[in-house]
Design goal:
By secondary structure, the protein is an all-alpha fold. It has two domains: 1-20 and 62-77, no CATH class; 22-60. The protein has helices at 3-17, 26-44, 62-76. Helix 1 packs antiparallel against helix 3 (62-76). The longest helix is centred in the middle third of the chain and has 19 residues, at 26-44. The radius of gyration is 16 Å and the shape is elongated.
Length: 77
């Protein structure tokens, strides 16, 4: 990779890290909200396995995905 390509990749990653916490589309927000409600229902009804839906919530956040990708990139360097 050249310096220009590296700088371009770093700029894209920085943009992802500084983006919003919530997803951009209405469908993605609805899916995220439904997963939140499923986990809340599992918490209140002692169905603990339903709370695992909360583990999927960060996958809908552009900022979380960017930070995870950045950490994996630094780790695998």
């Amino acid at each position: 990779m050249t310096d220009k390509e590296t700088q371009n990749a770093q700029t894209q990653i920085a943009g992802a890290l500084l983006s919003d916490w919530l997803p951009s589309g209405i469908m993605r927000r609805m899916i995220m909200f439904i997963l939140l409600l499923i986990g809340l229902y599992g918490f209140l009804s002692e169905g603990g396995y339903l709370m695992f839906s909360w583990l999927l919530l960060p996958l809908f956040s552009p900022r979380c995905v960017g930070e995870i990708a950045y950490a994996i990139g630094k780790f695998s360097k």
